């Protein structure tokens, strides 16, 4: 076991939140120690729907192609279906995860990264490996016991589980990325609102189900099968590898307060029933339980301790927002911590973490729970007992079943809020943050009341919004390049255009006044650094050609200026002092 150490940042947890934070900090030259009570990364596939916003973070960290190589593509995620069994009657299906033909363009417009299906057990080793390459040190089988706040940081007591040795690690900051039962969050006395929901029973299997799924590819295949009273009627075949590896949710029923305890034979029998074919060979790799919660923490932080991921937001897997939001949390905090540790900003910037991320956490937890309700409505219409089901399905097929058919289809369509919810994935809007600054004459804030913000992305360069993706080109011989790829990467970027060349000198003045601060300037337009080849930047930039859009290292807009101002150097310095107060 390793003993006593000091590090700028100690991270508790090597899951999607903790490992991403270690990776991003390392890329900014800030080393960290990561402890995890488990002996290795996730041993079951867990979260898998990988959304565009999360992939943009990994793209910025240079990992997109490595992740894509082990992910299933958007085409494999084409549908979500509802059936009696995989071989039996189908009740209906929806196009899913951006595959609805009428929505495909929205997803393609939103991001350079397509949706994908990336099991957590494939993602975590990549994050750990890449984080180690940039200086993070992982200590598995090491448990957080308690922490004490010091005047200049935190002292954390940890236990090396195999040997039982207890030792201390001193750090300037402690990140609690320790999942839904966060001991770190408890240690800083922050409460959570909400409740525990239920326990999922998942079985990880290998079985060749190609003949049922190739015709109707999809990550999620709901089985509404009430034929076995020991099991709840609702289950799901979730693709891990098309079409030979799955995680199957199958809930043992509770009768008179006692939950049925299945044997391996019971599980296989039920799986065959859910498949609808007893001859399919099945290999059980593991079975595991998972507690589903509906909870959000009151705050993400206290003093030098910051919590992210499931430590602060916990919800059902509907909409697939869990690990994606963990990655966005890490993106939000990593650069802020690195700037503070390098003396490039006052530690007051850290107070923006809760201000910016809690509304995102509140929003995803609400949506995932609303989505659960939509599913319940659907299940209740089709009927959860064998008797009810016989009646509804027979009525559905007769002329007098028109009202039932219509109610069912309407309930099915409502789950589109889960399956084509581009908005909830992309619209992380940072309001009231001291790291965004709105000019008094900027009346351009989008009216969110006019938009279904769950389903549709709001595209704007208004401060607090995410930089919209548009394709640019360097010259007539270059491949197209996303504007996201020329921003981010740990530094600020000021985007201007024709007539805005004075911004370069003004940025230099700021950099001179603030040693260590780097702000990249790019000009987009005719004979500039980048061609607005498709004219899309012109449509979304929200300022005039000689104006400026200031983008934070995490791709969020911190300020914009309509035209070239008078006294631009002084103006820009005031802006930086406001959004990034000096140490
Ligand atoms: P995460 O829980 O992944 O990681 C916590 C980390 O903290 C681990 O490394 C752990 O060892 C460490 N840790 C915890 N306590 C510690 C302590 N006291 N000391 C040291 N280290 C400590 N989601 C979904 O969308 N679909 C799904 O099917 C599933 N299935 C699923 C199954 C199981 C078994 C779990 C636990 C979770 C899921 N999830 C899921 C949820 C999803 O996995 C979850 O949203 C993310 O993993 C959260 O990532 P975090 O990094 O925040 O925590």
What is the end-to-end distance?
37 Å
CATH-assigned fold name of the largest domain: FAD/NAD(P)-binding domain
Query: Count of DSSP E strands?
Result: 26
Shape designation? globular
Range of strand content: 25-35%
Q: Ligands bound here?
A: dihydroflavine-adenine dinucleotide
Can you characterise this structure?
- With 583 residues, the chain is α+β, with helices and mostly antiparallel strands.
- It has 3 domains: 5-72 and 118-193 and 296-365, FAD/NAD(P)-binding domain; 367-421, no CATH class; 429-579, 3-Layer(aba) Sandwich (Glutaredoxin).
- The chain is 31% helix and 26% strand.
- A hairpin with a 5-residue loop joins strand 9 (153-160) and strand 10.
- Helix 1 (16-27) runs parallel beside helix 9 and helix 9 (322-341) runs antiparallel to helix 10.
- The chain starts with a strand and ends with a helix.
- The relative contact order is 0.12.
- Bound molecules: dihydroflavine-adenine dinucleotide.
- Dihydroflavine-adenine dinucleotide (FDA) is lined by residues 12-18, 35-38, 44, 46-47, 120, 143-144, 177-179, 183, 288, 290, 309-311, 317, 320, 322-323, 326.
- Dihydroflavine-adenine dinucleotide (FDA) binds next to helix 1, strand 8, strand 17 and helix 9.
């Amino acid at each position: 076991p390793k003993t006593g150490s000091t590090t700028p940042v100690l991270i508790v947890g090597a899951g999607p939140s903790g490992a991403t934070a270690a990776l991003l900090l390392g890329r900014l030259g800030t080393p960290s120690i990561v402890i995890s009570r488990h002996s290795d990364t996730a041993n079951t596939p867990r979260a898998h729907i990988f959304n565009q916003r999360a992939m943009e973070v990994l793209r910025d960290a240079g990992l997109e192609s490595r992740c894509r190589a082990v992910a299933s593509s958007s085409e494999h995620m084409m549908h979500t279906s509802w059936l009696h069994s995989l071989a039996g009657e189908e009740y209906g299906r929806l196009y899913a995860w951006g595959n609805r033909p009428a929505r495909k363009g929205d997803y393609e417009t939103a991001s350079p990264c397509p949706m994908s299906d990336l099991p957590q057990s494939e993602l975590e080793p990549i994050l750990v490996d890449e984080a180690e390459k940039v200086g993070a040190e992982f200590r598995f089988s090491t448990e957080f016991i308690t922490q004490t706040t010091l005047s200049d940081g935190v002292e954390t007591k940890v236990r090396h589980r195999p040997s039982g040795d207890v030792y201390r690690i001193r750090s300037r900051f402690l990140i609690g990325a320790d999942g839904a039962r966060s001991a770190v969050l408890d240690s800083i006395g922050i409460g959570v609102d909400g409740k525990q929901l239920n326990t999922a029973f998942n079985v990880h299997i290998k079985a060749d189900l190609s003949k049922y799924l190739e015709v109707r590819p999809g990550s999620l295949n709901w089985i509404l099968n009430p034929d076995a009273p020991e099991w709840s009627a609702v289950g799901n075949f979730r693709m891990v590898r098309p079409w030979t590896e799955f995680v199957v949710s199958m809930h043992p029923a509770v009768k008179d307060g006692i939950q049925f305890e299945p044997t391996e034979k019971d599980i296989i029998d039920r799986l065959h029933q859910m498949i609808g074919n007893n001859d399919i060979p099945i290999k059980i790799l593991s079975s595991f339980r998972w507690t589903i919660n509906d909870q959000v923490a009151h705050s993400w932080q206290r003093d030098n301790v910051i919590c992210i991921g499931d430590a602060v937001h916990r919800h059902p897997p509907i909409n697939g927002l869990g690990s994606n939001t963990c990655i966005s949390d890490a993106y939000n905090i990593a650069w802020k911590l690195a700037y503070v540790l390098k003396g490039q900003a006052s530690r007051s910037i850290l107070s923006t973490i809760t201000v910016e991320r809690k509304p995102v956490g509140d929003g995803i937890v609400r949506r995932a729970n609303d989505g659960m309700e939509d599913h319940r409505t659907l299940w209740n219409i089709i009927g959860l007992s064998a008797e009810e089901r016989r009646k509804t399905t027979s009525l559905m097929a007769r002329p007098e079943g028109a009202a039932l058919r219509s109610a069912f289809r309407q309930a099915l369509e409502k789950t589109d809020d889960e399956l084509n919810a581009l908005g909830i994935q992309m619209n992380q809007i940072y309001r009231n943050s001291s790291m965004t600054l709105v000019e008094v004459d900027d009346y351009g804030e989008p009216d969110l009341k006019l938009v279904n913000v769950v389903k549709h992305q709001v595209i704007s360069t208004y401060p607090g919004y995410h930089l919209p993706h548009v394709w640019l080109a360097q010259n007539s011989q270059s491949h197209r390049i996303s504007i996201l790829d020329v921003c981010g990467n740990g530094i600020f970027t000021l985007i201007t255009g024709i007539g805005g060349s004075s911004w370069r000198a003004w940025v230099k003045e700021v950099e001179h006044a603030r040693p260590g601060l780097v702000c990249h300037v790019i000009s987009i337009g005719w004979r500039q650094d980048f061609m607005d080849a498709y004219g899309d930047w012109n449509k979304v930039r929200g300022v005039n050609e000689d104006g400026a859009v200031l983008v934070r290292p995490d791709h969020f807009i911190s300020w914009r200026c309509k035209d070239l101002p008078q006294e631009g150097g002084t103006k820009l310095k005031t802006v930086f002092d406001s959004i990034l107060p000096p140490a």
